[in-house]
Design goal:
CATH superfamily of the largest domain: FAD-linked oxidase, cap domain/gating helix
Strand content: 15-25%
Structural class: alpha+beta
Helix content: 25-40%
CATH architecture of the largest domain: 3-Layer(aba) Sandwich
Number of domains: 3
CATH topology of the largest domain: Vanillyl-alcohol Oxidase, Chain A, domain 3
Radius of gyration: 23 Å
Largest sheet: 7 strands, antiparallel
Shape: globular
Number of strands: 19
Distance between the termini: 30 Å
CATH class of the largest domain: Alpha Beta
Number of helices: 14
Strand order of the largest sheet: 16-13-15-14-18-19-17
Length: 498
Amino acid sequence: MQTKTDSNEIQSYLIDASNMRGGQASRVAFPENAEEVAATLAQASNNKTPVTVSGAGTGIVGGRVPFGGIVLATDRLNRIKEIRKEGKGGRAVAQAGVVLAEFQREVEARGLLYPPDPTERSCYLGGTVATNASGARTFKYGPTRNYVERLRIALATGDVIGIGRGEIYADEKGKIVIPLQGGRKIEAQLPSYKMPRTRKHASGYYVTEGMDAIDLFIGSEGTLGVITEVEMRLLPKPEGVFGGVVFFGSEDKLLSFVAEAREVSLNTRSLNLTDEVDARALEYFDQHSLQFMREKFSMIPQSACGAIFFEQETTAENEDALLQKWNSMIEKHEALADDSWFAVNEHDRAQMHEFRHALPVLVNEWLARHGQRKVSTDMAVPDEEFARMLAFYKETLDASRLQFVIFGHIGDNHLHVNIMPRDDEEATEAREIYGKFIARAVELGGTISAEHGIGKLKRDYLLELYGHEYIQQMAELKRAFDPACILGRGNIFGEELL
């Protein structure tokens, strides 16, 4: 196993996409198999040396930024071991350091689909499992959790365990027992909180009554063990996909369009209907977002106050009928149909995806010119509270002097508000407003992080969601798997609780 200690060689492993400063570590280890990961963790536990797990560094909550100890990089756990068809779908086995985009290309080349599709596809598979990653297609398919069938995990105790879906469940009192070699076992008590009633949630440990033990590790942000290998369920690749970017001149009409598209899509799935409207993605761009993107996309209509990007999967038999149903819905809600864009082939869809992904890049370039960092929300609320949350976002920001854009996964009531300060004074104001948004999301029964996780940057807000007693229960759960508390120190909760 290679280890690097030179400060110049390890610098890139002390940061992630959060731009959190101050990362430091004595060395970076590059294990090549699960046993080397486990041996490194066992030694670190004996010496009480903190270990920060490093994926691709695409996270934006500071989870990969170490403050002491060592970094354990999963770069060399990078083999796709198997992709096989099973019935209409399939299974795949891959190591944690496989790049998601490469994995999806290999899967699709075999006529299969791996649905999780986060915006940043240069991430590692292990990282997507550790954060329960989601993305635009989550509206139809759900997050990463829905596709994980088996995990191989190295524990801080030096053990390597394999845990499959359906093998171990929590008992009626919320206790999970994980068997180890030599007759040993780990007994862990689940926290007693109830998770928010949102379709997306990435805030702390997953807890449900009688839950499958594998779900505890998914989304645990590297604080309970190091994922070294994943077995995933695959779906058949859709025969066809069409999509559109639909512009609206009225915010009310846009929201009524979204409400109908969401309701019809959810009904289609619940009744297992075919040949009906069933959006796999519903994405929102507000007026400020469109204004920002006009420098790159001059064809955006000047009269548009917002836009919705949607996608629908089709077959040769139902494509025409589904196009007509979407067109009828677009006309019903008085969209700017003649100025909107539609795509039925791969080339046009690629251009639409370029449109969808352009905004974050443009925002980051703007911030770089001003020497500031954005303040970005990741909250989601239940369906019935979405309109109130969106109105609160806009009313609060319109009353300020701050520049902002609002965009994201409106199908799941999950929008990203990017507040863009021009100087340090505005940055302070932006953080104060962010705190107000957190409080309102919690008040409405929502989650403080729907897809990005907690990391180090949001752990104080997790206290606002759950309260001190439940955070203590989470810390006790962590200690059951990591008695020396070496893994991911500072992630999810502060070290003072450990």
